[in-house]
Amino acid sequence: MLKITKFLKPFQLTIYLVLILVLLQSLAELYLPTLMSDIVDKGVVTGNTHYIWKIGGLMLLVAAGEMICAIISSFYSAKVASGFGKSLRSRIFTHVSNFSLHEFDKLGTASLITRTTNDITQVQQVLVMMLRMMVMAPLMCIGGIIMALTKDAKLTLVLAVSIPVLILTIFTIQRKAIPLFKAMQVKLDKLNRVLRENLTGIRVIRSFNRTDHEKERFNDANEDLMRTAIKVNKIMASMWPIMMFVMNITTVAVVWFGSIRISNGHMQVGDMMAFIQYAMQIMFSFLMLSMMFVMIPRASVSAARIAEVLETSADIQDPSKPVLPPAHKGQVEFQDVAFRYPGAEMPAISNISFKMNPGEVTAIIGGTGSGKSTLINLIPRFYDVDSGKVLIDGVDVREMSQEELRKKIGFVPQQTVLFTGTIAENIRYGKEEATDDEVKHAADIAQASEFISNMPDGFATMIAQGGTNVSGGQKQRLSIARALVRNPLIYIFDDSFSALDFKTDAKLRAALKEETAEAAVLIVAQRVSTIMDADQIIVLDEGKIAGIGKHKELMETCSVYREIVMSQLSEEEIA
What is the CATH number that goes with domain 332-574? Predict the structure, then answer.
């Protein structure tokens, strides 16, 4: 929780101002019933019109001051809460950006979205109320009791009965509500997850006619959240009628016993009216506290969830003294590397050793689940190896800063990701300062210029969210152009040619060969035709290297590679 409260430090002066204004507002409210009592007893009863005007003017002045304090304190408390929410969202976004893939898998994308939006909103709303009500309520309660005692100590015994009833009511309701608020946030995570899956997978859902199934799945999550929300709201809603009932009974009791004391000459009419006002202030202070207690349980759950994100440290950290490798090489070497996913029984890859040299093309091929994508994810440190080393130009990637490491790499992932914006902006994602000529050159090499020129606005054409307005092959070519414009020392293509037709694939590989002549190129592919001409082919089988060599060598020495080739090519093509 300390990681959350530290975000209030920049607003300390403003918070102090709000607290002072709330204090002045509370003192003004406590002073007004006394002035009213004086007007009734010393002005109305005696018929002193001058005194009524004098004290009435003072009441108006105090009320105006109270109003001004309330307006200013409301404005600045809202400003503090909004600034706090903004700072906290920015910090969480920055913190999450440093997570490794393991932390994303652990917390879940849907949950991280909920924590960054809904949870912070809950805390932000409570902060506004805390700055106003959590300060005002105790002042009004304690001040009201003191002022009531000065008016009539014996009549204050009425409050000695009603206040414990209110406290017991609030405590009982909150005890039942807090577990339900915790459950609500978890169920909100589930709802977000189902909704996100439906929106991102809408094409698959429609193609398999699973719309009704997904509607049912969403309705189940929605109704589950609704049932919990109704249950907790029923509990919280019962607080208000109980509070109002106690307040009204208290008022009746004060009037009843107060009238008896007035008739006996122990109390004046003005004092009884002031006493009623103080009793209401005391009751309303508990009402304010009850409103706080409606929001605090849920906000406390949200704060704990936010703190969990902030307290989660990334597995992958930069070294205290990063090592800078040579600037213009790009050699990659795996030395007896093994890696196991967290919680997995078996390692995903093991005993991996090979070397990639600048100017050479290294290809990786293997069956599904053989560890191809896992292996290439270790180069940019998306995961860290369990044993062995991944070296770039002789330096362990764990000894380099992540920023410097990834500057050397042009990465084209298996699942193509495009961002909302123009085509040029998506290509410039690889190199922000790239000129128009560099962007066009990268598109030419990636065989993307033809379809870009046929679009309405060319490179200024907007890409829809998720790249839904371009085909799979067009997505892949734009992703390749994004890596090419970076002009890195190391290229990694993770099955990045699968959506291309054979003609485009061949043209693209021919253009890439010239463009990447001085770089180390790593290609993961399913199609043998894509990697037949590679300088080095690595065959993976069940997370281990089954063979390394060129196409002809592997056809003679590696049965796994030979089976893959025989399954894809005819005898004429093999010959």
Answer: 3.40.50.300
